[in-house]
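As the work plan foresaw, our protein records have gained a structure token line. A representative record is set out beneath this paragraph:
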Amino acid sequence: MTFIWPYMLVTLLIVPVIVSVYLRLQRRQRVLANRFYSLGAGQKVKEQTPGRRRHLPSLFSLLGLVVILVALARPQAQISLPRVEGTVILVFDVSASMGATDANPTRLGAAKAAAREFVLSQPATLQIGIVSFSASGFTVQAPTNDTNTLLSTIDRLQPTSGTSLGQGILSALNTIAVDAGLTSDESTTAASPVAPQSDGQNAQTSGPPQEDQLVKLPEGSYPAAVIVLLSDGENNQSIDPLKAAQAAAEHGVHIDALGFGTTAGVTLEVDGYSVHTALDEATLQQITQAAGGTYYPAQGEQDRRQVYANLTPQLVVKPESMEITSIFAGVSILMLLAGSLFSMLWFNRLP
């Protein structure tokens, strides 16, 4: 146990003074009582005295005083509390294919709706970041527990061209590393974060080519974190998403994925060309398996709350310093009340 104001414990020095005065008064009282009894007039009174129990009211009052003096020092105790803690990075696929209408209203629209529901269902102890990717990946919102900021960021996301699942995973890993203070020169060039007001369009990142960026991820102990891919699984750009998923697993970061769209797919008009696009569940499943996560078809009939619970880092038991002044104050009040009650019952007076 520690104390915020340890110097207040000096007040406990008055306790031995009080005990000394009490004992002195008791000795004086015994002398006077012996004189009274020696006259032969106090035998009946002596038989009716409460004996040693007469000290109980004073003892409770003294203990109550000791406890309240300790409370003045504002004690703290290390208490292990279970709570959900960690970082979740929502990685949005904002490629052109996410504008397909085989999800309601579009794949990206459905992903945004799922992300909003996820954000609103999480405790304040969870940090949530947002990464978007198309041909490249970039951080849109650094991890925060500000719900309004997260919802505003999600609303600004818009589809653009190209798809690189690997770049999205890489950017998410760098976001986790930066938030944990594991920055390095290589990591900052691999995926440079942009300002939160970015809408996900026309943003580019620079840095080492392809898989070399994975090798240059910051080393160190990554915090408890989960990457959640919200994508249709289509990929037509480097980095290899499976190698990116393996890099995440090596750093202790799990990857879960929510798939949007249908396996039958639809045909889109992109830059004057007709392009057929479909949900690639196999790729998403391979990514999650490589990174120790789970794939969830977003249009399945699973209980959404259960899905969101699984996407969240698990409960951790973490010791925390908690001020317990109120507990000490409550105990002292109970002791003072007990002393007063005994005194009223036995002596018809307060101690």
The chain has two domains: 2-78+321-347, 86-312. The longest strand covers residues 75-84. The mean pLDDT is 79.
